[in-house]
Specification:
Blueprint lengths: L1 H39 L10 H15 L1 H7 L6 H5 L3 H36 L12 H28 L20
Helix pairs in contact: 1-2, 1-6, 2-6, 3-6, 5-6
């Protein structure tokens, strides 16, 4: 199960990275076309239709797909000042409570985003740009990212319960060797 979850998180990160590369490609291509238009005048003036829409959709996808893996890596902003001054048992209980709350919020967000994507599909909602993109496509990627975030919250909560200690890494701390049981 651990291997499957790690592969899920890695796949989500790869998809997020591909989305970022897509943004870079679209923006660089449009910049090159703008430079060509300045050099060659109106005869060489071209634009990528709805390139800003595509970049925005890719940014949303990258952001949502990276949520779960970032949580697993301890990369989200957290208030560790309080946890650092609590006894270990109280810090563990606080972490369990926050993981449970995060799971509930992630599941709720997943449910409502899935409902929005379904409505967009049912009503045929499209983006208002030059290229009318069906909105359920980028919304579905956001649903996937939120679902992976929910899985990550559940994963960490189960690990914390099984190990009876805090498991969310602190990315701002010095890198530590991962515990043996997570390999």
């Amino acid at each position: 199960m651990r291997r499957a979850l790690d592969r899920l998180y890695a796949a989500a990160l790869w998809l997020a990275a591909l989305a970022i590369l897509g943004i870079v490609a679209v923006v660089c291509a449009q910049v090159a076309l703008n430079a060509l238009a300045r050099i060659g005048g109106p005869a060489l003036s071209f634009t990528i239709p709805s390139y800003a829409d595509f970049a925005g959709f890719l940014l949303a996808g990258a952001s949502f797909l990276a949520l779960g893996p970032t949580l697993i890596a301890g990369g989200h902003i957290r208030v560790t000042l309080v946890l650092a001054h609590l006894p270990e048992r109280l810090a563990w209980i606080a972490e369990l409570l926050t993981l449970a709350l995060g799971l509930v919020l992630a599941l709720t967000a997943t449910r409502f985003m899935a409902g929005l994507a379904l409505e967009s599909w049912q009503f045929g909602d499209r983006s208002p740009g030059i290229v009318p993109v069906p909105l359920w496509l980028p919304q579905s990627v956001c649903v996937l990212g939120l679902a992976i975030l929910a899985v990550a919250f559940a994963d960490l909560a189960v690990q914390a319960l099984a190990r009876r200690r805090r498991v969310v890494p602190d990315a701002s701390a010095a890198p530590a060797t991962p515990p043996e049981e997570s390999r």
